[in-house]
Design goal:
The complex is a heterodimer. By secondary structure, chain A is an all-alpha fold. Chain A has 3 helices and no strands. The longest helix of chain A has 31 residues. By secondary structure, chain B is mainly α. Chain B has one domain. A two-stranded antiparallel sheet of chain B has the order 1-2. In chain B, helix 4 runs antiparallel to helix 5 and helix 10 packs parallel to helix 12. Chain B is globular. The model of chain B has no long low-confidence stretch (mean pLDDT 90). The chains are: A mainly alpha, B mainly alpha. The interface between A and B is large, with 40 and 41 residues.
Chain lengths: 105, 475
């Protein structure tokens, strides 16, 4: 619980963070930037879980546990995505979205 | 301490043991015998499939995080048989292309850990277990889609799959956090008691549904499907379209019919719209495909739309028809992908044009393909007809006549493009037809199992009664 800050302000922040992530996922032209956008989405959910747990249901720790697992899984996801991107870079020396559209429609 | 309750997780523990055993075997196996790892893996997994048929007790573990009952156990067996057939079909590809580069074991370990994730996902009793199972089932598949590291399209498929899956799970998690905010718990049993239709919980439901719809590739979340299927190795495309989709449908069904049942008046509208969009768009895009894998990708999107007809009614009949349809769909789609795999491995050809005149050179293969496509299209003597018929009956029994009408129109459209392939194989003559070739033992076995499945499942009616009886466990 943070003094002087209500749950509404934090949830507004996480919602904005979530939609920045979705916007970035759709508009970015670089695979790494897309990955960063996905991380924004995941981190918005992490903050959401912690805040909801702390402000609304402080007697149980389910939200906090959940957020710990999300952080670990997100790290694994990023590692895998980066390794695939590196493999792609070795073949086409580019991480731009416009270069990975050999398959379409 | 009493460890006997761990026997509820028998399937999971056994599968994990097989994966670990394969890693150990690879270390101690001499270099010149590496290709026998494929035989060993298939043998071990075959034993696992057989053990899976023995009955298991019902119960839950870890304070309700892990549930198992006869319906879940039955569905795990369906997944097992699907993966077993898939391994048989891809054994030759593995031996020729993968083991020679010393990368055979990883394939099995990744595939089995993905299957393990699906077990945990469909047995989940709370959202944490569900999320972990979902991720464990998705991440290895992304690695496997990019498995042919020397091919550019394989890497492209991998990156498209992992980014779409990450976005989907992120959206899904945001939805789960909202459901948590309204109910104060992540356990399914607690949520059922307190959930009501408030604005926040409806938004949570929609976001959560969007995340799972990515996995089932429902329109408008289907954009990754065709690209990933085309780029990934064929066995992985087959896995994605059969096993992964089946498991996701099953857990979506469990969640909608039990946990989110109080919101049914909300989600039936969502499913209504998405079912129509998925059937129509999947069919219309399938019409213009030339590549066999993309064709099957769009056909599997359309099939997912038909599955939603069973989901919309939310009762025991719906559960039974969905499970029955998925069971038949597993066999039909595996047969189609198996033939594509056999031809692609032998000649490297994957376009529909290349199949012209196939009946004259390879009559058996084209018969298998014909049966598979008839089953997918739903032509009477084969199993696919009964699956679709029961789904339509189920939807009509609750008065969704317009939806059923649209579905029937879509079946007619789908008949056209399925028959295009059949026409290319049987009626067209071609100078450059694919020459005759003999399939190896494993591939032949894999195709025979699927053909038996397609022919027998539709006619053996006690099976449907059995599934219907099991479905009462869910509600």
């Amino acid at each position: 619980m943070i003094e002087g800050i209500s749950i509404y302000e934090i949830l507004t922040l996480t919602s904005i963070l979530f939609f920045i992530g979705v916007y970035g996922f759709i508009t970015r032209k670089n695979l790494i930037s897309i990955l960063i956008s996905v991380e924004l989405i995941l981190n918005a959910s992490v903050v959401n879980f912690v805040v909801i747990n702390k402000y609304l249901y402080p007697d149980m720790l389910q939200g906090v546990f959940f957020s710990l697992f999300i952080i670990a899984v997100a790290a694994a996801e990023t590692a895998l995505a980066i390794s695939i991107i590196i493999n792609l870079y070795r073949q086409i020396t580019s991480v731009e979205v416009k270069d990975i559209e050999t398959m379409k429609y | 301490m009493d460890f006997s309750s761990f026997l509820l997780m028998r399937q999971e523990i056994l599968l994990l043991a097989i994966a670990l055993l394969l890693i150990l075997t690879e270390i101690f196996m001499p270099q010149n015998k590496k290709s026998s790892i494929v035989d060993l893996a298939i043998f071990l997994f075959g034993i696992h499939v057989i053990i899976g048929f023995f009955a298991i007790e019902e119960g839950s573990m870890f304070g309700g995080m892990f549930n198992t009952n006869n319906l879940i156990h039955f569905f795990k067996n369906v997944l097992n048989v699907g993966v077993f057939v898939l391994l048989l079909q891809s054994a030759d590809w593995l031996k020729e292309k993968i083991v020679t580069h010393n990368r055979g074991t990883e394939f099995f370990v990744l595939l089995f850990s993905s299957l393990l994730g699906m077990y945990f996902m469909i047995s989940a009793g709370d959202f944490l277990m569900f999320y972990l199972g979902l991720e464990l089932s998705t991440l290895p598949i992304a690695a496997l889609a990019a498995y042919e590291t020397t091919k550019r399209i394989s890497s492209e498929a991998g990156i498209k799959l992992i980014l779409s899956a990450a976005l989907a799970s992120g959206v899904s998690l945001f939805g789960i956090s909202m459901l948590y905010a309204t109910t104060g718990s992540i356990y399914f049993n607690d949520i059922i008691e307190v959930i009501t239709a408030t604005n926040l919980s409806i938004l949570g439901l929609i976001l959560f549904f969007a995340g799972l719809a990515f996995k089932i590739s429902l329109v408008p979340f289907h954009f990754w499907t065709a690209d990933v299927y085309e780029g990934a190795p064929i066995s992985i495309a087959s896995y994605l379209s059969v096993i992964s989709k089946g498991a996701a449908v099953f857990i979506l069904m469990i969640l909608l019919f039990t946990v989110l049942k109080p919101l049914m008046h909300i989600w039936e509208h969502i499913i209504y719209v998405i079912a129509i969009a998925t059937m129509s768009i999947g069919n219309l895009f399938a019409l213009r495909q030339q590549n066999m894998k993309r064709f099957l990708a769009f056909s599997s999107i359309a099939q997912a739309g038909f599955i939603l007809l069973g989901l919309i009614i939310g009762n025991q009949l719906g559960t039974a028809t969905v499970v029955y349809f998925v069971l038949i769909y597993v066999f039909s789609n595996l047969a189609a992908f198996g033939v594509v795999q056999a031809i692609s491995l032998e000649t490297g050809k994957e376009n529909i044009n290349d199949y012209e005149g196939l009946y004259r050179t390879n009559p058996k293969l084209s018969l298998v393909m014909m049966l598979a496509l008839f089953s997918l299209a739903g032509i009477p003597p084969v199993a696919g007809f009964f699956g679709k018929f029961f789904l339509f009956i189920a939807a009509a029994s609750e008065g969704y006549y317009i939806l059923v009408f649209i579905a029937v129109v879509n079946v007619t459209i789908s008949l056209y493009y399925y028959l295009l392939v059949v026409r290319a194989m049987f009626l067209r003559k071609s100078e450059s037809a694919i020459p005759f070739f003999e399939n190896k033992l494993y591939m032949r076995l894999g195709l025979i199992i699927t053909v038996l499945g397609i022919l027998i499942l539709g006619l053996y009616s006690p099976l449907y009664d059995y599934i219907f009886e099991l479905s009462s466990k869910l509600l």
